[in-house]
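Narrative summary of target 7.
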Amino acid sequence: MTSKLPHALFPFAIAAACLPARADEAPPMVYGYVQLMNNYIGRGLSQSVGEPSVQAELDVNPGEGVYGNVSAVRIGWIDRITPGNRVHYEVDGVLGYRWLFGGAGEVRAGILQLQFPGHYVTGARKPDTTEVFAFIGWHGLNARLNYDLTDSFGTPDSRGSWYLDTNANWAVAPRWNLAAHVGRRHSQGTDPLTGASNGRLFSYADYKLSVARSFAHATSLTLAWSWTTADPAAYTLDGYDVRGRHVSVVLEKDFP
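Modeled conformation, tokenized:
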């Protein structure tokens, strides 16, 4: 399998974002979270190849106007694709603009840079990718479209690929939340060596159902079940089905 898999600096989030705020103060301009998980699922696929992972994110400006964030997450798929690679983290940066409307509505647009720092063997393609995105949310419903300005995650001739992410969330009881997700990944272009269609080989839909319980001290626990329609021949690494049917558990701590 070549580096077609789609999808985040990290303990820094704790130090930078954990200053307390008084109750009478405005929301903090800098905030973030840290997650521990048994399996990192991104865009429906196991980016950590079934291994435990840690993710952290640091955000600036929760309100209207220019905002940004940087995140990092432990991954495992690049090393499995090309033996000799030592690439253990994905680091993402976002710069965008946010509009708020109607008391419960939000629109965002911006650019996302995904970087995969590490050691690559000679000849290996780096999966660094640049995307633009648009997001709209209303109450518990939201949708986001990401469009690739570069080749997508190391796949030759794949510029113009996209991922559509739709979600619905319901607060069913105090501290309890249910969520459903449907995503669609479409790959553009053709393999320059074989002429095979990237769209036919690597496009898929993905689905997720989850339940979350919030606790004191800004912590939460989420249990999720996810699956995809991806081709197992294209999304199997060392015998592990990264597209598989995954049960994931995520423990999150928010700051501040």
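Residues 182 and 207 are 5 Å apart (CA to CA).
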